[in-house]
Design goal:
Layout lengths: L3 H11 L12 H14 L3 E7 H5 L9 E7 L7 H14 L5 E2 L4 E5 L2 E10 L7 E5 L4 E5 L1 H9 L4 H13 L6 H11 L16 E10 L2 E10 L4
Parallel strand pairs: 2-5
Antiparallel strand pairs: 1-2, 3-4, 4-5, 5-6, 6-7, 8-9
InterPro entries: NT_sf
Protein name: Nucleotidyltransferase
GO molecular function, one term: transferase activity
């Protein structure tokens, strides 16, 4: 019988995404770079991987790579116009672009890619303003800070387990909020990475609740005690 330690290791291994420097998915950026630079011209400050891929929390079943386009604060176009013109540029380049909340979803060589444009709030900082389709307004983000907080949290395995669970049940739970939830929920608990094995300090237990005739997934946080 497989113990919980080995089972968790097997689940994580099955959903591992190669984010190393020679990962094939990194070629996506080079493929779409000419399209992005024709669109953004001299206003582009940087184009780089972001999201779960950059934080090390990516799992199979979600977006393969997120690409963030940093635009200079001197660009006077509205945030909605920035989003719309990028969407049009990707569509005209032959990609089946999909409007999402702050990103644009495309497929590149079989890879699922989310492209997000953001305008810097000043010439030197890392805070950016994004257009949100859901809010019909702007949002503030700091990609560098997101990566620092999550990648340095010591909770990468626990976050990945929660993402696997989320994807399994098709829940609409944005990755960054999920990551912050896990980090906050496990604050003060011993990290799985500090143990002699990979056992996390909790195990996600999936049960089914019946509500209005529907089967609804529910997660329960159960303290893990070594036998």
């Amino acid at each position: 019988m497989v113990g919980i330690d080995e089972h968790i290791r097997m689940v994580l291994a099955r959903h591992t995404v190669d984010t190393g420097p020679y990962s094939p998915v990194r070629g996506v950026q080079a493929t779409i770079d000419p399209v992005l630079r024709r669109w953004g011209t001299q206003y582009i400050v940087d184009i780089r991987p972001s999201g779960s891929f950059a934080k090390g929390t990516a799992v199979h079943g979600g977006t393969d790579i997120d690409i963030f386009i940093s635009l200079t604060s001197t660009l006077s176009d509205t945030l909605q116009s920035i989003y719309d013109t990028l969407f049009n540029a990707l569509s005209q380049a032959g990609y089946a672009a999909r409007r999402q909340n702050v990103s644009i979803g495309i497929a590149v060589g079989g890879w699922k890619v989310d492209v997000t444009p953001g305008r810097r709030q000043d010439q030197y900082g890392n805070y950016h303003s994004l257009w949100s389709n859901k809010a019909g307004s702007w949002l503030q983000t700091n990609i560098n800070e997101h990566i620092r907080v999550v990648s340095g949290s010591g909770r990468i395995d626990e976050i990945r387990l929660m993402k696997i669970w989320r994807n399994r049940f098709g829940l609409d739970w944005p990755s960054f909020y999920l990551e912050l939830f896990v980090i906050d929920a496990l604050k003060g608990a011993r990290s799985a990475r500090c143990r002699t094995t990979s056992s996390p300090p909790f195990a996600p237990s999936i049960s089914q609740s019946r509500h209005a005739g529907s089967s609804i997934p529910r997660i329960q946080t159960i303290p893990y005690r070594r036998p």
